Amino acid sequence: MRRPGGDRGQVSIELLGMTPLIVLTLVLMWQAVLVGYAFTLAGNAADEGVRAGTAVPPGERFAVCRQAALKHLSGAWRGGASVEGCAGSGYVTADVAVKVPVLFPGFIDFPATVHGHAGAVEEAKR
Predict the structure, then answer these.
(1) Residue 5 covered by a domain
(2) Cα gap 58→55, rounded to integer Å
């Protein structure tokens, strides 16, 4: 015997049941992208800071290095960033720490930070 209406509407009910899981999966994937992007930004900022720091005398190095590193971060990412190091004799290193945002940069940050490290040989003086 067949029921009147059969399985009509079953797909709609299953979709409604799966919607929260689909949305959660998309949110977690987006958060993973933000973590990866934070690593990329921290590494690039450290590279740019070191590049600028190798071309100036040691007395000006920290200020120039820090300014160059922060210049390459957008406003939302710059807020929680910190630059360390920018020192060395012969070999200059810099460390940049960037906070990982929750879903959107500039909104809320995780308590964890990602770090970028770079180093370069000091330019020869003529």
Answers:
(1) no
(2) 9
Tokens of 11: 């797909």
Taking the C-alpha atoms of residue 65 and residue 44, their distance in angstroms, rounded to an integer, is 13
What is the domain extent for residue 70? 10-121
The number of domains in the chain is: 1
Residue given tokens 């930070």 in the structure block: 113
C-alpha span between 49 and 44 (Å, rounded): 9
Residue by residue, pLDDT tens for the chain (126 residues) are 656 666 667 777 788 888 899 999 998 999 888 888 888 989 989 888 888 888 777 778 888 888 888 888 887 777 778 888 777 677 888 888 888 888 877 677 777 788 888 888 877 665
Asked, for residue 4, whether it belongs to a domain, the answer is: no
